[in-house]
Specification:
Shape: elongated
Keywords: Signal
Protein name: T9SS type A sorting domain-containing protein
Radius of gyration: 21 Å
Strand content: 25-35%
Helix content: 10-25%
Organism: Subsaximicrobium wynnwilliamsii
Largest sheet: 4 strands, antiparallel
Number of strands: 7
CATH architecture of the largest domain: Sandwich
GO cellular component, one term: extracellular space
GO molecular function, one term: metalloendopeptidase activity
């Protein structure tokens, strides 16, 4: 209802997918008041014949990124590979630690597979950003 009021329902498909993935799908039931034993978990989306969802396409972020790029290995030691499916030209590759500090920044030619050596980073969680006018990648990277 809030999505319908605020955005005209443009996010309804994504909202249904998120709720269904957590067991709050189309046929889920909260049960009766005062009884916590009669709840029904469901992972299904609304039926395909539901005209309010006629423009939904089910394409997860994982599926769409796999068609464009792959970052591996993750977890990594101090080096990762960025493989792209086309030539994206010059891009800025940066790494930010969990405190928001930039720990690596460099311009690179993004074509095929590019190996990035981060040097001797402390083990931890980082955010990798690869960015130019045609591609924007933000991925959590674990350095072990």
């Amino acid at each position: 209802m809030a999505d319908q009021m605020l955005t005209g329902g443009e996010d309804q498909c994504m909202i249904w997918e998120v709720f269904a993935n957590r067991g709050l799908g189309f046929n889920a039931s909260q049960g009766l008041d005062g009884n916590m034993e009669d709840q029904v978990e469901d992972f299904s989306l609304p039926p395909s014949g539901d005209t309010s969802l006629a423009n939904c396409t089910s394409l997860s972020v994982q599926a769409s990124k796999m068609d464009t790029y792959k970052i591996y290995p993750n977890p990594a030691t101090n080096e990762i590979n960025i493989r792209v499916t086309q030539n994206y030209g010059r891009a800025q590759v940066s790494l930010v630690d969990i405190n928001g500090r930039s720990v690596y920044k460099q311009q690179m030619d993004l074509n095929g597979t590019v190996t990035v050596n981060f040097g001797q980073l402390q083990a931890g969680i980082y955010i990798l950003n690869v960015n130019n006018n045609t591609i924007n990648i933000n991925e959590k990277i674990i350095i072990k």
